[in-house]
TrEMBL record:
InterPro entries: GPCR_Rhodpsn, GPCR_Rhodpsn_7TM. Keywords: Cell membrane, G-protein coupled receptor, Glycoprotein, Membrane, Receptor, Transducer, Transmembrane, Transmembrane helix. Residues 345-356 have a biased composition (Low complexity). GO terms for cellular component: plasma membrane. The chain crosses the membrane at residues 38-59, 71-90, 110-130, 151-170, 196-219, 254-274, 303-322. Residues 50-319 form the G-protein coupled receptors family 1 profile domain. This is Purinergic receptor P2Y12. It comes from Gasterosteus aculeatus aculeatus (three-spined stickleback). Residues 345-365 are annotated as: Disordered. Its main location: membrane. It is a multi-pass membrane protein. The keyword Transit peptide does not apply. It comes from the Eukaryota.
């Protein structure tokens, strides 16, 4: 068996990363050893820059809304995930020592998947918040609600940290050779803990997927009704289309911005979790899959895992387009006028909702 292939593989403490392959199917893989290390290196450099700016801006913004609290948590998760990429590069390109690969098994991979599921949960919470703002745009917040959201955020981090801690503690067997899988380092209790975490993380993803779909279905219906009311109001006025076309175009553009959360969620997280299902079957029911199919599913899983990593790069789009406080602070820092990016963001939202077409719901004939 090639040491290269075996040296690349890890058995993740979170679901979807049972990357060990059958011995008979092991072979050098340029996608794994060259392409992905290069992609993750680029992702690290760009992601580190963008998230450094996001951290610098966000922690100058007071947590005055649920939305900002959730975004700050995602920023922290993205920064942690970004710092796991160099270890992924070294391990994947066979440049890591045995000790470093043990560290990847025990710590780096755990943090990568921890931050992924942190982001998934907060995407679900953001979707609920967007839905609430859409259906009840004039409902405010208060200090008590903000305090509860902060406590909820702390509870989420604590829960997932405790969930993954056994995978760190119970991955303690010394490697018997330089060619090892992360599963070789786990005790029996560690393997059992891994299966438990598998099931919990499946519940987290599928539960949040259902939440996101329901929330954005309701948002779509409300925005359509709002657009219909605005169109009826405009057509019933005395002024003709030229005077109303520009505001309507801005509102439609801002309405589209709301769906950035949905787009990022589906691009980054959905492909990986759908690809994981046949991949896991290929690992647990090996007799049903030929070698070539196993390798294809492995490569598919790794490709969709990279899409999940893109989350750390795409989240800054959400901060910029949906959070007015973020834009305002950024523009002040760069000494740019607030309207510099009005063509991209619409006609300037009044709140940090991203759903500025919500104002249309107040327009009634």
């Amino acid at each position: 068996m090639s040491n290269n292939m075996q040296g690349n593989t890890t058995y993740s403490p979170f679901p979807g990363n049972h990357s060990h392959t059958n011995n008979t199917c092991s072979r050098d893989n340029i996608l794994k050893t060259v392409v992905f290390p290069v992609l993750y290196s680029c992702l690290f450099l760009v992601g580190l820059s963008l998230n450094a700016v996001a951290v610098w801006v966000f922690f100058r913004i007071p947590s005055k809304s649920h939305f900002i609290i959730y975004l700050k948590n995602i920023v922290v998760a993205d920064v942690i995930m970004t710092f796991t990429f160099p270890f992924k590069v070294l391990s994947g390109s066979n440049m890591a020592s045995t000790g470093l690969r043990v560290f990847v098994c025990r710590v780096s991979s755990v943090l990568f998947y921890l931050t992924m599921y942190i982001s998934i949960i907060f995407f679900g919470l953001i979707s609920i918040d967007r839905c609430r703002k859409t259906l009840k745009p004039f409902r405010g917040t208060n200090a008590a609600r903000l305090a509860r959201r902060k406590l909820l955020s702390g509870a989420i981090w604590t829960f997932l940290l405790l969930l993954c801690l056994p995978n760190v503690i119970l991955t303690r067997k010394p490697p018997k050779s330089s060619s090892f899988k992360c599963s070789d380092l786990k005790t029996e209790a560690g393997l059992y803990s891994h299966e438990v975490v598998n099931h919990v993380c499946q519940v987290i993803f599928w539960g949040n997927l259902v939440t996101v779909i329901i929330c954005y279905t309701l948002i779509t219906k409300e925005l359509y009704r709002s657009y219909s009311r605005t169109k009826a109001h405009s057509s019933g006025g005395t002024k003709s289309g030229a005077s109303t076309r520009k505001p309507q175009q801005g509102n439609r553009k801002m309405s589209a911005n709301v769906f950035l959360v949905l787009a990022v969620f589906f691009v980054c997280f959905v492909p990986f979790h759908f690809a994981r299902v046949p991949y896991t079957m290929s690992q647990t029911q090996r007799g049903l899959f030929v070698c070539e199919l196993k390798l294809f599913l492995f490569q598919l899983k790794e490709s969709t895992l990279f899409l999940s990593s893109l989350n750390s790069l795409l989240d800054p789009l959400i901060y910029f387009f949906l959070c007015k406080s973020f834009r305002t602070t950024l523009f002040k820092t760069l000494q740019l006028p607030p309207g510099s990016c009005s063509r991209l963001t619409g006609r300037g939202s009044d709140t940090d909702t991203g759903s500025t077409a919500l104002r249309d719901s107040a327009v009634r004939a």
